[in-house]
Amino acid sequence: MNYTSTRDNNVKVQSKQAISQGISKDGGLFIPTEIPKISQADLELLRNADYPQRAQFILSKFLTDYSAQEINDCVVKAYTGGKFEDDENVAPVVNINNFNYMLELWHGPTCAFKDMALQLLPHLLTCAAKTTSDGKEIVILVATSGDTGKAALEGFKDVKDTKIMVFYPEDGVSPMQKLQMVTQEGENVSVCAIKGNFDDAQTSVKKIFTSDEINSKLEENKMQFSSANSINWGRLVPQIVYYFSSYLELMETGEIDYAGEKINIVVPTGNFGNILAAYYAMQMGLPVNKLICASNSNNILTEFLETGVYNRNRDFYTTISPSMDILISSNLERLLYHLTGCDDAKVRGYMNDLSQNGRYEVDDDIKSKLSDLFFAGSCDDEQTKETIKELFETENYLCDTHTAVAYNVCKQYREKTGDDKTPSIIASTASPFKFTDSVLKAVSDGSEISDEFQKVQELSVISGAAIPKGLSELDGKEIRFNDVCTDETMKEAVYKMLKF
Ligand SMILES: *Cc1c(COP(=O)(O)O)cnc(C)c1O
User: Fold this and answer.
1) Which carries the bigger pLDDT value, residue 88 or residue 447?
2) Ligand 1 closest atom vs CA 400
3) What pLDDT, on the 0 to 100 scale, is given for residue 448?
4) Which listed residue, 48, 79, 203, 283, has the most CB atoms within 10 A of its CB?
């Protein structure tokens, strides 16, 4: 199967190249030129398979230049051997109430859904590099809104022939997220704060990626950049797997009566990666009624999906769901490419408008496709907290702030459309203990405690939920990284890390 660029249809590479390169030279994103199909018979066949087998099946449809053995090795390393809390059930599906199910994607080492892909990506990448990068060391640059950074560090730490450098917005991550990153172990890792928000970090990192000067400097030193952000195709494919897997779980428990019955998928959205994976699953043949896109107060996607106008000339809010505090949702570019019928010129035009004027508008044909596929909604911090409280008090289920946004928008969808019977899979993207402060405030009257780990204890006592090991072991851990940079000094920070 071939891959091309959203901004240039002349690009033609295989998946190993797409994954090791991360982003196309023209600034576009790699996409498959066709979407493989999964039949209802396949679904029946996969029903009794375990998670690694399901992953093997789906990955092999897209990663056709990897051998079956290579994919198997990668999948086994990622999803077995105790990386996730329960090897038998990597991504549990939990019934909340009538036809609403949480797909818990945060039982990996860093307690956010990013682990689902980032435990696998380093193996896909180093395997690809053997073929495509003739011995070059891979340098991973990451811009993070909080969770990707830690998950990437944990995935790449001490992986041979790789280095990883993470940039996070100085005041844009939760205390726990920050602590997870600045205490990161490993010989090949580095972490740096950047002044500004996530969009600034992402834009600066993209600039470094495409800088000729910096790239030739790497070349001289037998190194090559790649990306662990969801612009990398190797991040998206693993995410397609769990949507299929959740459907198969519902078939297993009899909550779906037959292969073909439709579900809704609700995703708390930031960079549009996770919901795009659900779109791909749907295009492959997963029976989906609506993709429900949930945003916080940074509701640029809600507006876009409703009006066809993408306008980032607006206030940026720092919310209690920081991993969704994003105004430039990179992966939307991939959706636009597919919905325009692979019109690279049109996508280039939109992206140009976005960088020049901060705005673009799609035509009526695309608007109508968008409204067929998606329902969009948003909720603010107050509603987020109320939702956490309501779920806790009525269903005895403790969820994090991002998942609460999704649940709230799922309810909005049900009320607005009257669809109260289609099973809805809600992507639960982080452990509540990763956002302890906000979650604690939502479920208790407020606490006087200021120490993060005492808050974690208190939340555990109140809720009866166990504290994930990956978080409790951070208490008292040595801080390794204090550096702060700006857009202008990011280059120096990269050079320092690479010892140039
Ligand atoms: C990254 C993240 C999101 C947003 O996912 P996208 O793929 O960027 O849309 C939502 N919730 C949590 C907890 C995250 O870490």
Assistant:
1) 88
2) 13
3) 78
4) 79
Q: Does the pLDDT at position 446 exceed 80?
A: no
CB proximity list for 400: less than 8 A, separation 6 or greater: 106, 428, 429, 430, 431, 432, 434, 435, 439
How confident is residue 202, by pLDDT bands cut at 50, 70 and 90?
A: confident
- Mean pLDDT over residues 76-104, rounded? 95
Write the Ramachandran bin of 57: left for phi over 0, alpha for psi from -120 to 50, otherwise beta: alpha
Q: 114, 367, 455, 491: which is the annotated catalytic residue? A: 114
Active site residue 114: yes
Amino acid at 338: H
H, E, C per residue of 123-139: HHHHHHHHHHCCCCEEE
Phi, psi of 81 (to 5 degrees): 80, 20
Collapsing DSSP to helix, strand or coil, 446 comes out as coil
Token pair belonging to 18: 């797409």
Structure tokens at 30: 């790699």
* Residue whose CA lies nearest to ligand 1 atom number 8: 271
Residues 148-171: tens digit of each pLDDT: 999 999 999 999 999 999 999 998
Q: Tell me, what DSSP letter sits at residue 26? A: T
Confidence (pTM): 0.95
- Dist. CA 193 → ligand 1 center (Å): 19
Closest C-alpha residue for ligand 1 atom 2: 323
The mean pLDDT value for 5-29 works out to 95
| Residue from 229, 429, 409, 397 nearest 302 by CA | 409
Structure tokens at 486: 């700006």
Bridge partners of 359? Answer: 311
What number is the average pLDDT over the span 272-287? 98
Residue tagged 């993408």 (tokens): 310
For residue 429, report the distance from its CA to the centre of ligand 1, in Å: 7
d(CA 368, CA 29): 24
Residues with CB under 6 A from ligand 1: 112, 114, 147, 230, 268-274, 323-324, 402, 429-430
Report d(CA 403, CA 315) in Å as an integer: 23
Q: Which atom of ligand 1 is nearest to the CA of 277?
A: 7
